[in-house]
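Reminder to self: tokens first, then the designed residues, so the page reads top to bottom the way the pipeline ran.
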């Protein structure tokens, strides 16, 4: 049975067609990328001991062995302070000193260090009066846009609010004006009550496979209240670290060493309606590409029902 759904937060239209996963194909499978085994690579600019190959460091966390997590300026920035029409700064966050580290094998303490780095760099830029939005994202493996093997994330400060964030805030504002309630509060309450797509329900965060998403098997991590990322407590970062470790352990079991994008959607500045916004993370699998139907119509097709994937990766 076909099922058309709309993502309430973006307006994206999705058709669920589960039987399409059984289509015959004679196209050869693209070779999966291999997991890395070496902790250190001699020519890697992000490995500990190879600092001379990377740009200037902006911050780092250390233990007795040296730095364990580090941020540097991006040598090939998307934008910089001299860009026309937009200004900002582009940094790389080295998630762990281990070349063979990945979200699929990082420990809870490694995730905690990474989130402390995220928060430090985020605070640095969001306090700048000329910066209206700070984007944190990650590309994992070539199919998701990564250009280097060593595990890393990226952070970009911007003098404008991106279109997708503006769109979401506009939808939140319109919903509140029409219904006199918060869309996030409504969805969080309904997801918890239904418990069909919930992966994890914690003190601060709710993890779900969304009702409708243009990406099959997307996972969303939603802050239950309106806390801003820069104000998250140590206990909240601990919970976030636990969530990431467990989610990626489960994804690895079900999907293997899968390419993905991580997007953190944080509060914009100086935008009417921002008080209705909730911090959230998108974990977007990149196993599947869009076809002609999606590209030409802006309607997306999914062959996986969200509740089925949620059951497979649920944890406490």
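Designed residues (316 positions):
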């Amino acid at each position: 049975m076909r099922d058309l759904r709309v993502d309430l937060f973006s307006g994206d239209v999705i058709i669920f067609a589960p039987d399409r996963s059984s289509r015959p194909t004679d196209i050869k499978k693209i070779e999966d990328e291999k997991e890395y085994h070496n902790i250190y690579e001699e020519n890697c600019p992000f490995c500990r001991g190879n600092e001379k190959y990377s740009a200037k460091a902006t911050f780092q966390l250390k233990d007795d062995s040296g730095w364990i997590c580090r941020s540097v300026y991006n040598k090939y920035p998307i934008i910089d302070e001299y860009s026309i029409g937009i200004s900002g700064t582009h940094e790389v966050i080295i998630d762990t000193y281990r070349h063979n580290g990945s979200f699929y094998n990082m420990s809870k303490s490694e995730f905690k260090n990474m989130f402390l780095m995220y928060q430090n760099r985020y605070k640095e830029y969001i306090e700048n009066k000329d910066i209206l939005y700070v984007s944190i994202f990650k590309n994992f493996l070539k199919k998701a846009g990564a250009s280097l093997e060593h595990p890393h994330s990226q952070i970009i400060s911007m003098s404008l609010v991106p279109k997708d964030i503006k769109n979401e805030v506009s939808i939140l504002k319109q919903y509140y004006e029409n219904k006199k309630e918060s869309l996030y509060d409504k969805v969080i309450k309904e997801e918890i009550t239904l418990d069909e797509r919930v992966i994890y329900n914690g003190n601060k965060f709710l993890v779900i496979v969304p009702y409708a998403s243009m990406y099959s098997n997307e996972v969303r991590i939603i802050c239950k209240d309106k806390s801003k990322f820069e104000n998250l407590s140590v206990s909240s970062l601990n919970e976030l670290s636990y969530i990431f470790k467990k989610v990626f352990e489960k994804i690895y079991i079900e999907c293997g060493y899968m390419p993905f994008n991580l997007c953190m959607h944080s509060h914009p500045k100086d935008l009417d309606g921002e008080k209705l916004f909730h911090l959230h993370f998108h974990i977007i699998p990149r196993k599947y590409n869009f076809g002609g139907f999606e590209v030409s119509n802006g309607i997306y097709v999914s062959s996986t029902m969200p509740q089925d994937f949620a059951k497979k990766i649920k944890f406490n």
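Residues 25-29 have pLDDT under 50 and may be disordered.
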